[in-house]
Write a structure and sequence with these properties.
heterodimer, A: alpha/beta, TIM Barrel, 25 strands, 14% strand, B: 219 residues, NADH Oxidase, two-stranded antiparallel ribbon
Chain lengths: 787, 219
């Protein structure tokens, strides 16, 4: 059955007398006849569902007009006028638009505050008698999640959820249609769709992806092409006939609720209705099996026996990790974030998040961890906690569809965790435990799992929401522990045909050589049907077993991925070995070989070279050549800096081995970034190169006033004063410092540099030299001192 | 309006460019990737913007802000509205850049600095994506973002732009020398003009609009 929505409201209101800058929703009470006429025009054009004039009738939007106290009144009036117009010929959908703000942490609107705003509007629309609620034009999945949650709590009406996508096929905040479909279906959207932003042509692929990834009906309301402005009026180029002609393609892609958004008129809707009146419904894959799909804001991961094994990374867990636990206790999440990024890099597709540290507010920490992790990775998360508040905090703050780790058959889990799974659209990891403990045999585990599944289904969950844990016990306590796990995996597959998981390492507890036991066990489990192990992705042996098992089990055709393992990185050339020691040092400096430099210096000392000889013939010589290469554009500043780093290690080593041998200094160089200027990286670079070129460096830092610079120049009997200024607003300080130096009788030469400076400026300020970069500064410094 | 954009990975090619390594193709790939990853951990992305009408070279903010400078006036020519925006990646990354240098990790420090610069630009790009979605519906096209100090737009414009963009709301401050803090921050103005008025295909011409021809980052 195809339903036809109406088209644009705003432009019709303007045509009906809405003044620029006035509140469109106020027309519901001040000019209901105008609104009614628009509804009638659409119904007569063939619309079977009309949308109320309430897109901006939330308290937050109405506050722009000082009308925030009239939410209920304006929404009620809108439903009334729509129903009057419909006269039973069309259904009425209560329109809810976005708040215009982003939900934290992307914006400053708190999740709970947004909930209240949406709840208030949804409740008013429902009580006034709307047949549907339609949440539309959202560009952020988190705002859609909170709106849907509020709408479901406020009423029992079917809820339509429509996001807007940009030309790259994602919403502004990065959500792809697949993830949107997965997240919103799980949270209980009745119809999922897309509206606005793009024309029908660009929305065909979006509709297709939505249709392929959920089972609820799909809706689509395109704009009449991409708009332009003419004499201050926004116009849309697509004529009604062309618009209508896209209807068949949209139906074919899977849409059954079609209408128009910006720029569409009753004519567009008439053409659309005409074009698809006799359209065969698209062949929507009537999937009986819904696979287990988890989504982040911008990515979906499917766990299924036909797909490669999915790694669930277990490292974000303070249990047995003292340092991480201490960090979390102090409120720092740096280690957690590092583990998130590194596990993903190591191949984890889902990240388990456990904040189980004693003495902290777990819910608060879980919320924060989930937010921070979700900001830097796109892996879906598993919320791993036994604390119901922490669980809700995690589920609420995760802008996607998470996995709950875990639900056992213990009464409090069944009572508290399952409703949260349903509410936030999460999947559950089923742990076949009861309050009496762990069932010993595979058959008993299957029985317990079945009870949990029954309870979950009673809560509204269904296949596609379940991941079964085979429950690993230790073989040192029970000789059959491994065999029971293998049998459990097999029974799970036969009995439920649902995906499976387990934490592996418990199997070897109390035994020597645990990695061997663990990896052998892992291979056996993979063969028995393990789909998504919870493991340490950094464990190389386990990763290798996974790759070889994939080849053995037909998941890596021809062992192509496995073959990559065998390609050992080619060895580094060993050219330095054949060189004499000083040449080898020179080369090591030039190549920035920090690993070898200390040993080479030691070798040179053993060969009885003096510190000065090593400095002059190897280190300085290397820097000279680098300077030339830099000057001629063969190498670039970061490369010179790597060499300087290596040089620094060389000097450190020399000092360590020959503490008595002072190397000669070329002179004293006092350096500072001038007052008012807080940039210091450029100054630091110059300082590093200068100090590694035989000068004694006195670095005064950034934002240094003239007086301090003059004092330091006199005190250290500076040969050169280097002044750095990055901005046109701070470079005038240079003139002052030079004047003050002269007045104080300093004989130091002055070198200046920085992004805003030029040779001309340096000359007019009376500087002795202008260096455009650090390498140049070294060359000029030597020149200034007559080298 | 606050929009703290989500950055999932920092553009390594841009980081390479900001580090002045665009022409050194074979140098430091691993170091650059490491810097991008580390930067990701340290980012505290925040962004804010306000929309104003624009008439006769004046942003109709309260108080009004008259634009001076040939390049910016030309750039905003024909625009009816402007977005004034500010974005930052926070102070934590800056502290780490300084610490690294102090520890003698010169290269890592410079690359982290470049990654932070790339990240601020990415955050601003993501904000622009939001503006594009929002304003293209109304028939506007965006000119690329322009900051005080570009072309002949004097840095002194920073003071007013800072104020009317709402930069203070995201914890930014402006020093007496008109420097933004945290240092890895930007303010910018984006012109909106009717698509029909927009005949110039001006995008990604930032470098060619700049007269610093010897810049190592010039595209």
């Amino acid at each position: 059955m195809i339903e036809i929505f109406d088209g644009a409201m705003g432009t019709m209101l303007q045509a009906g007398g809405l003044k620029a800058g006035a509140c469109p929703e106020l027309m519901n009470v001040e000019a209901p006849d105008v609104v009614k006429k628009i509804h009638r025009a659409y119904i007569e054009a063939g619309a079977t569902i009309i949308e109320t004039n309430t897109f901006g009738a939330s308290s937050l939007k109405l506050a722009h007009y000082g009308l925030e106290s009239r939410v209920r009144e304006l929404n009620f009036a809108a439903v009334k006028v729509a129903k009057d117009a419909a006269q039973g010929q069309a259904k009425v959908a209560g329109s809810i638009g976005p708040t215009g703000k982003f939900i934290a942490p992307l914006g400053d609107l708190d999740f709970d505050d947004a909930y209240k705003i949406f709840y208030e509007q949804a409740q008013a629309l429902a009580e006034a008698g709307a047949d549907f609620l339609i949440i539309e034009t959202c560009i952020d999945i988190q705002e859609m999640r909170v709106a849907l949650l509020a709408a479901k709590d406020a009423c029992n009406l079917p809820i339509i959820c429509q996001l807007s996508y940009s030309e790259d096929g994602r919403t502004v905040t990065g959500t792809d249609p697949q993830s949107a479909a997965v997240i919103l279906e799980a949270m209980g959207a009745s119809i999922i769709g897309v509206n606005c932003s793009l024309g029908p042509e660009q929305l065909v692929p979006v509709v297709k992806i939505l249709a392929e990834n959920c089972r609820v009906p799909i809706s689509v309301q395109p704009n009449a092409g991409m708009p332009y402005l003419e004499n201050g009026v926004t116009k849309f180029p697509m004529d009604a006939k062309t618009f209508g002609s896209w209807g068949a393609k949209l139906v074919e892609a899977g849409a059954t609720y079609l209408g128009g958004c910006c720029g569409t008129t009753p004519d567009h809707i008439r053409e659309l209705a005409k074009a698809i009146r006799n359209e065969e419904l698209g062949i929507r894959n009537e999937k009986t099996i819904r696979p287990l799909m988890l989504s982040s804001r911008s990515k979906t991961v499917t766990i299924d026996k036909t797909l490669p094994t999915t790694l669930i990374g277990e490292r974000i867990n303070p249990t047995g990790r003292k340092k991480l636990a201490a960090e979390i206790r102090e409120g720092s999440l740096l280690g957690v974030k590092k583990d998130a990024l590194n596990q993903v890099k190591a191949g984890a597709k889902i990240l388990d998040v456990n904040m189980g540290v004693g003495g902290i507010d777990q819910a608060k920490m879980m919320a924060q961890a989930v937010r921070e992790i979700a900001r830097i990775t796109d892996a879906p998360l598993a919320i791993d906690t036994s604390d119901v508040e922490a669980l809700e905090a995690g589920l609420k703050n995760f802008p996607g569809r998470a996995l709950i780790n875990s639900v056992s058959f213990e009464p409090d889990r069944i009572k508290n965790f399952l409703p949260l799974a349903k509410r936030y659209g999460a999947a559950i990891l089923i742990l076949p435990l009861t309050e009496h403990g762990v069932p010993k045999t595979a058959q008993e585990r299957v029985d317990v799992a079945e009870k949990i599944i029954d309870a979950a289904k009673n809560c509204g969950l269904s296949n596609g929401d379940f991941l079964l844990d085979a429950l690993v016990m230790t073989i040192s306590a029970d000789k059959d522990a491994c065999l029971e796990v293998l049998k459990t995996l097999q029974f799970y597959r036969e009995h439920f045909d649902l995906p499976t998981t387990m934490g592996l390492s418990n199997i070897s507890f109390g035994l020597p050589n645990r990695p061997l036991i663990n990896s052998t066990f892992f291979a056996m489990c993979l063969a028995a049907g393990l789909d998504a192990p919870i493991m340490n992705p950094y464990d190389e042996l386990m990763q290798n077993v996974l790759k070889s098992a994939a080849a053995l089990l037909g998941k890596d055709p021809n062992g192509l991925n496995f073959s990559k393992l065998a390609q050992v990185a080619t060895d580094k050339p060993i050219k330095k070995i054949t060189l004499d020691t000083l040449s080898a040092i020179k080369l090591a400096i030039q190549e920035g070989d920090k690993d070898e430099i200390a040993a080479l210096i030691k070798r040179a000392v053993d060969e009885n070279f003096s510190a000065d000889e090593i400095t002059e013939r190897a280190l300085t010589a290397a820097m000279n050549e680098l300077g030339e290469d830099f000057g001629s554009g063969k190498i670039f500043l970061p490369q010179v800096l790597l060499s300087a780093e290596t040089m620094r290690l060389a000097f450190d080593e020399l000092k360590k081995i020959l503490p008595a041998q002072e190397t000669k200094t070329r002179g004293t160089f006092v350096i500072a970034t001038v007052k008012g200027d807080v940039h210091d990286l450029g100054k630091n670079i110059v300082g590093a190169l200068i100090s590694n070129s035989g000068f004694k460096l006195v670095d005064l830092g950034k934002d240094v006033d003239s007086e301090k610079i003059v004092r330091a120049a006199l005190e250290h009997d500076a040969d050169i004063v280097g002044l750095c200024a990055l901005m046109t607003t701070t470079m005038i300080q240079i003139d002052k410092v030079i004047a003050d130096l002269h007045a104080a009788g300093s004989s130091a030469k002055v070198m200046v540099g920085g992004a805003a400076l030029t040779q001309e400026y340096a000359d007019s300020a009376g500087a002795d030299a202008y260096a455009k970069d650090g390498v140049e500064a070294v060359r000029l410094a030597k020149n200034l001192l007559g080298d | 309006m606050i929009y703290n954009a989500q950055i999932l990975s920092i553009d390594a090619a841009e980081t390479r460019r900001y580090a002045g390594l665009r022409k050194a193709e074979h140098f430091g790939e691993e170091n650059i990737l490491a810097a991008c990853e580390e930067a990701l951990l340290l980012l505290e992305v925040r962004g804010v913007w306000e929309l104003y009408d624009y008439k006769n070279c004046t942003v109709e903010s309260e108080p009004p802000f008259t634009i001076a400078g040939n390049s910016i006036i030309k750039h905003l020519d024909g625009c009816e509205k402007v977005i004034c925006m500010a974005a930052t990646v926070g102070a934590a990354i800056e502290q780490e850049i300084t610490k690294k240098f102090e520890r003698g990790e010169y290269l890592a420090s410079v690359l982290l600095d470049a990654a932070a610069t790339a990240a601020v630009e990415q955050a601003a790009d993501l904000m622009e994506k939001n503006f594009a979605a929002k304003f293209s519906k109304e028939g506007y096209k965006m000119r690329w973002r322009f900051s005080p100090g570009y072309g002949d737009w004097n840095l002194t414009a920073q003071e007013k732009l800072f104020k009317i963009s709402g930069a203070e709301q995201i914890g930014m401050s402006l020093s007496s020398a008109l420097m933004l803090e945290p240092r890895k921050s930007i303010t910018a103005i984006i012109g909106l003009c009717s698509i029909r008025n927009e005949e110039l295909g001006i995008r990604n011409e930032k470098c060619s609009a700049c007269d610093k021809l010897d810049c190592s980052m010039r595209k």
